[in-house]
Amino acid sequence: MTQHIDLVLERTLDAPVDLVWAAYTDPEHLKQWFAPKPYQITECELDLRPGGIFRIRMVGPDGFDTGHGGAGCVLEVEQGKKLTWTSALGPGYRPAEMGEGCESFPMTAIVTFEDAGNGRTAYRAVALHKDAKDKETHEKMGFHDGWGTVAGQLEEFAKSLKVSA
């Protein structure tokens, strides 16, 4: 990680790693928490293998809609521990077209999950950018507030899995 071009969010979630992982890697679960409310994910495709697809469609009450959006590419999967994906490539490692708004710059997300003891998870999301301009754009779009809100929603959703499991 390079501080001047990357963003980091770290949280200790009050839910065990296996439930946080399940919430993050099951497309139907991911749709429940991945967008900061009142925004929502209406479509999600996730193929958990290197070269697989990572695609979401986010919509909001203000007319925001990523459309069918460009699909990202899963780069790395360590079961229960790490998921890395990028918007710079599409499925099968094909170069991706950049869109508008939050899809206007390429980034790579490295998300890690570690047992923090007592049924909690150390959650870390790192957004890698190609340059300081893209980092600044992402930061101004609300990286810390948005991804922080979503981390809280992830925690609540994962805890609900425990109740219904």
From TrEMBL:
<protein>
    <submittedName>
        <fullName>SRPBCC family protein</fullName>
    </submittedName>
</protein>
<dbReference type="Pfam" id="PF08327">
    <property type="entry name" value="AHSA1"/>
</dbReference>
<dbReference type="InterPro" id="IPR023393">
    <property type="entry name" value="START-like_dom_sf"/>
</dbReference>
<comment type="similarity">
    <text>Belongs to the AHA1 family.</text>
</comment>
<feature type="domain" description="Activator of Hsp90 ATPase homologue 1/2-like C-terminal">
    <location>
        <begin position="14"/>
        <end position="157"/>
    </location>
</feature>
<dbReference type="InterPro" id="IPR013538">
    <property type="entry name" value="ASHA1/2-like_C"/>
</dbReference>
